[in-house]
Write a structure and sequence with these properties.
The chain folds into 2 domains: about 10-190, NAD(P)-binding Rossmann-like Domain (Rossmann fold, 3-Layer(aba) Sandwich); about 195-350, N-(1-d-carboxylethyl)-l-norvaline Dehydrogenase, domain 2 (Orthogonal Bundle), CATH 1.10.1040.10. It is about 45% helix and about 15% strand. It is built from 13 helices and 12 strands. The strands form 2 sheets. Strands 5-2-1-6-7-8-11-12 form an 8-stranded mixed beta sheet, with helices on both faces.
Length: about 350
């Protein structure tokens, strides 16, 4: 039987904030999807009340009845698994998921950073796909999450990892159902440059997610305040330099050439970028880093897979990354009780 969006067995594994939004939109779009998470209270809320998406940027909310499971309740093999957990546990999680993946099934990772290689290592190159997402969400619990990006700004750009990409059309069909559910025809995008899409997203995350942890600010506040705005622009330029050294051409973000708009080297272009940045981030101004939420709860965050990934790749290609290095240092210091989350931490940066 030819797999289609309507007959495919689909799972969202890691139905936290981002995963609950995706699972709810896919379900709202008419697909049969299992939302899977280890959070018992969240599963109970999803089963009892459904998934409630609080659209903060639009002052409304909606609820979708969904199928929610704990991992130990999984009882079938899936054609498509959207992997939306933290990247730190990929080896363990993917090994556990292998028995629940069809032989011709695929895993599409939406994780931040550069996760495809770790996925392919477990499931095989031919079954590893990736999606760069451009929306943010905050976990509220018991079936409720807050969508912090405007619906019109949401997108998922999908591509294969060193494979023939035969399953791209199925992924596009599935994700298009989510877009249609909320009237966003641009939600699903086919990537011809997955590495470029990953690096464009990594640059934004390195600048804004990293600084959100360091300062405790929203993305909008980071872009608005003078010192953090300069640091964010510096981090973006570091990411662009590393990507270029690695032979990667950054993909456009929401139709804009980020490198052309924000990566200029001359004083005039840097001044223009400084003026433009708050406007470039306005659709995501209420977004707070998920890493900040983790650190506030006393958990280790994924900074080594965000700014740390830039540092590691920079070392491989001989590109200095002092600002990303400092973000990693401060975030680990916060995790270990050496620093507090405070805007005053921007004073540790030389910019």
């Amino acid at each position: 039987m030819t797999k289609t969006a309507k007959n495919a067995k689909i799972a969202v594994y890691g139905a936290g904030a981002m995963g609950t939004v995706l699972g709810a939109l896919l379900t709202k779009g008419g697909l049969s999807v299992d939302l899977i998470t280890r959070n018992q209270d969240h599963v109970d809320g999803l089963k009892k009340e459904g998934a409630t998406i609080v659209c903060e940027a639009e002052n409304r909310e909606f609820t979708v009845k969904v199928s929610a499971l704990l991992p130990n309740e999984m009882d079938k093999k899936y054609d498509v698994i959207f992997l939306m957990t933290k990247q730190r546990n990929n080896t363990e999680i993917l090994t556990d998921l292998l028995p629940y993946l069809e032989d011709d099934g695929l895993v599409c990772t939406t994780q931040n950073g550069l996760p495809e290689q770790s996925v392919a290592k477990i499931v095989g190159n031919n079954r590893a796909y990736g999606a760069a997402t451009t929306y943010g969400a905050t976990f509220l619990g018991q079936g409720r999450v807050a969508l912090t990006s405007k619906i019109e700004a949401m997108s998922m750009e999908v591509g294969g990892f060193e494979n023939d990409e035969k399953k791209i059309e199925l992924l596009m069909e599935i994700l298009s159902c989510a877009g249609l559910a909320v009237g966003n025809e641009n939600f699903a995008k086919k990537s011809t440059n997955l590495a470029g899409a990953r690096w464009s997203k990594l640059a934004i995350n390195s600048a804004f997610s990293g600084l959100s942890v360091v300062t405790g600010c929203t993305f909008g506040e980071v872009a608005k305040r003078k010192k953090s705005r300069k640091i964010a622009l510096g981090i973006l330029r570091e990411c662009m330099d590393v990507a270029n050294a690695a032979g990667v051409t950054l993909a456009k973000m929401q139709g804009h050439d980020m490198q052309k708009m924000l990566g200029g080297k001359t004083p005039l272009k840097r001044f223009v970028a400084y003026l433009v940045l708050p406007f470039a981030m306005r659709k995501h101004k209420k977004l707070v880093s998920g890493m900040l939420k983790d650190v506030e709860k006393g958990k280790k965050c994924e900074i080594d897979y965000i700014d740390g990934a830039v540092c590691k790749t920079g070392d491989e290609f001989g590109v200095e990354t002092p600002l990303c290095d400092k973000v990693v240092e401060i975030v680990h210091g916060i995790e270990n009780g050496l620093y507090e989350i405070s805007y005053k931490n921007v004073d540790f940066f030389e910019i």
